[in-house]
Predict the 3D structure of the following.
Amino acid sequence: MVGQALAEGFTRADYDVTIGTRDVDAALARTASTPRGAPGFGDWHSAHPGIGVTTIAEAADAADIIVLAVAGANAPEALSLADPESLTGTTVIDVTNPLVFAPDALPSLSVVNTDSIGELLQRTFPEANVVKTLNTVTAPIMIDPKSLDDGNHTMFVAGNDAGAKDEVRALLIALGWHDLLDLGDITAARGMEMYLPLWLRMRMAFDSPMFSIKVVR
Amino acid sequence: MVGQALAEGFTRADYDVTIGTRDVDAALARTASTPRGAPGFGDWHSAHPGIGVTTIAEAADAADIIVLAVAGANAPEALSLADPESLTGTTVIDVTNPLVFAPDALPSLSVVNTDSIGELLQRTFPEANVVKTLNTVTAPIMIDPKSLDDGNHTMFVAGNDAGAKDEVRALLIALGWHDLLDLGDITAARGMEMYLPLWLRMRMAFDSPMFSIKVVR
């Protein structure tokens, strides 16, 4: 859901987008709707023929910017399917959250407190420039922040490489974000991911994911 | 620092305030300034003679509302110094955060992810009505939210007892809060406490604790 939304949003913002997936044929053959009622990937792609679909390795190899839009727990494995050379000096945007949903417990985080997925990715792939962002809002707001109070809310950015953060900032501005807050190096991903339990309680309270937060000073 | 600020704020809002402390004589004898440059407790109290100072047990016994303003890790022990009868049916406002500051590591939380201080207090003192609030802003904003964008930012409330939350809501409104968000039962304390690492990174980015967040829908 997040990857497809971002592909649409980036395309609308005039970026060329290619989706990387483990099995291209299997992905394109999926036409059954998702449990949430979204179209299957194959049908979705038929409606968005300008968006490429290929293997993760090929998508990463051709990419100037890589966006990791997978379940947080799967993020390191997904990135490991890219050639290390493809990652060298490449900006990797990590929009993931390490959420664990269990039947008899409240949602929790699989990586938390003294580590984060953002840090784990940067440690595992030191040749990449990991930038954490967009994980604090639902997908429709990621790509259309102005749909909410004319974009008058805050998006956080964290990462070790200033150049990579500049690239991400330009991309966020192209999506409509204007209140960007640089939280420093990738260790700030910890705080950004640990915000999720509060986000989930607000989602429950509103019975909707269509909200965000504005930092007020 | 938080307890003294709240005592001043509640007094200004026409509540009668008594501070409970383990050793009254020792507390009043402290005149040396704190490491942050605040006056010692004795000097502070001389400037606020209308605020009572007594033992935790006596303060809790006389209180309609108990406010726990201590380090998160010490919150259960502090409340254990009150007579259980004093706690029965009494609203206990938990403003604490389980922050751990270590010399060679980033700050972390001592209770996190699958539990929280708020829940721990409610489990340990089932006779009390624990309400989590105010832990997401610095003390001067707790007692004067209108100092920031005319109070146009959000305060969260969580707890199991509707009547206790009504009491707390009235108290927050008396302090100047007007954007209150009820997150449901005390398990929401988890999200409220896990927000702290993000708060700490913003504090670093701004080099100031004078900020808050507004939930935008």
Q: What stands out?
A: The radius of gyration of chain B is 17 Å. The mean pLDDT of chain B is 97. Chain B has eleven helices and ten strands.
